[in-house]
Amino acid sequence: MRTMSIFYKQLLFIIFTMLFVFLILVISQNLILPRLYKNNLTTTMQNHIQELNEAMITNSEEDHELIYLDFIRNIEGRISIYDTLGSPLYGTSVQLPISLLINLNSDLISINEIETSTLQSIQIIELKDNYIYIYTQSLDGLNKTLSIVNTLSLYTLIFGIIISIIMALLISKRLTFPIKQLISFSESEDIRIENFHRKDEFNTLMVAFSNMKKHLQQNIQALKIELEKEKKQDVLSKTFIANVSHEIRTPLAVIQSAIEMVTMTHEESKKIEYFNMIQNQISMIERLSQDILILSKLQSHTMNLNPEPLSISKVIQEVTHELMMVYKEVEIKDHKIKTDIVIEYDHIRLKQVITNILINAIKFRSAQTPIEIKYQIEKKYVEISIYNQSNPLLDEDIPHLMDPFYKVQSDGFGLGLSIVKNIMKSHQGDIQIRNYQKGVEVTLRFKYE
Fold first, then answer.
1. 418 with 352: CB under 8 angstroms?
2. Cα–Cα distance between 12 and 442 in angstroms, integer?
3. What CATH code would you report for 6-151?
4. Distance CA 392, CA 385 (A)
5. Would you list the DSSP string of 168-183?
6. Which end of the chain is more exposed for a tag (fewer CB within 10 A), N or C?
7. pLDDT score recorded for residue 271
8. Where are the beta strands (DSSP E) in 61-202?
9. What local confidence, expressed as pLDDT, does residue 191 receive?
10. Which residues touch 417 (CB under 8 Å, ≥6 apart)?
């Protein structure tokens, strides 16, 4: 269904309003105004009769004719005077009929409208004291006035309709133009409307609509980002579960095989060997579970951290001392600086970060080469660099080294660097891995103030 435009709605509203006003005006002019005019005229005529009667009864009969002639010169209409028997005295020579005399004796006054083919008049017949007065006045002036007013009203209506069409066209154009701009703006990708210079409610509406569209686009964009994150997280979750299942499958298979071998052999030395194998695989699963638990807490920000002032050199000494007890053949060179560096950090997590990096460096170093540790203050950060001589990493491997379960070699679970990355992130730090011609360097950056 096609809707009516603003122009036609305004035009119809104005025309119907004018027609309604015109109808009320015509009814008032042709019904109410004539009645008010006649009532006012009747009252005036009665006052004139009262004045003439008082002049007649207060003066002698010799002066009555002069009084009558002088009076009728100053009024409109015609007055005739009769005695109580209906005989004419002044203004006429016609005898009054008996029926009129009888009615007058009972009513004292009679008001009539006289209408002929060419004349409409109002007539008052009134009995006062010893005289009967017949006062007749034409209504022709009223009829001409009403005719002129009705004609003028009709012309005014026609002129008003023409003006209404022009005004409705101008107003609708002024109203519809910003609305069309608003519709065009709503269908575009813009968040600001150009060439809109108004100082009325449309300007407020346009500003509000522009802000709403801006916020809506921001919310849609944020929602898209969240949906992408959800999709990515869903993929990561599925990949994570698959990787965990894969990592657990191997030690479980070894445990199952070892248990079967234990039940089949009778040699004590073999049984001890199989039990040790089972113990090692259980320890491996426990370590995997611990790593997964730590990574999960770090990623969900539910791990309780206890930052405290820590000496970098002392923490490195602790870690290297512990590792040297396990890897006795490895040389670790600690390039200390004169001024000790103290940072706010969780003690256990800082040791875990340095330990994981050093263990990787030890595993992948070239034989008989030392591990080098350097640390320095760089602007608002403390940098700890751990370098090991080895074959350089492949360029395509470096961006994924800190992804969960990503392994360059089959050794380990591929969670160590991912845990390091999340620990550093939880402390507003960063980790970088760089290739050199004869080795790999891992740099830890800690916030320092």
1. no
2. 82
3. 3.30.450.20
4. 16
5. HHHHHHHHHHHHHHHH
6. N
7. 74
8. 78-83, 88-90, 109-115, 120-128, 131-138
9. 57
10. 356, 360, 401, 402, 431
Packing angle of the helix pair 312-326, 347-364 (nearest 10 deg):
50
How much is the pLDDT for 97? 84
Kindly report, residue by residue over 68-85, the tens digit of the pLDDT: 888 888 888 888 899 888
pLDDT tens sequence across 367-423: 888 888 888 887 788 888 888 888 877 777 776 777 766 666 656 666 667 777 888
Selection from 244, 245, 272 nearest residue 258 by Cα: 272
For residue 308, the model assigns a pLDDT of: 87
Architecture of the domain made up of 198-303: Orthogonal Bundle (1.10)
Q: Are 136 and 77 in contact (CB under 8 A)?
A: yes
d(CA 407, CA 393): 12
CA distances from 432 to 358, 361, 366 (A): 14, 14, 21
CATH superfamily of 306-447: Histidine kinase-like ATPase, C-terminal domain (3.30.565.10)
Stretches where the chain sits below pLDDT 50 are 1
Give residue limits of the domains in the chain. 6-151, 198-303, 306-447
Provide the whole-model pTM.
0.45
Q: Which of 348, 368, 225, 231 is nearest to 290 (CA)?
A: 348
The secondary structure of residue 81, as a DSSP letter, is E
Distances (CA, A) of 162 to 152, 155, 168, 206, 425: 15, 11, 10, 33, 77
For residues 423 and 167, what is the distance between their CA atoms, to the nearest angstrom? 73
Give residue 42's pLDDT. Answer: 87
Q: Are 319 and 312 in contact (CB under 8 A)?
A: no
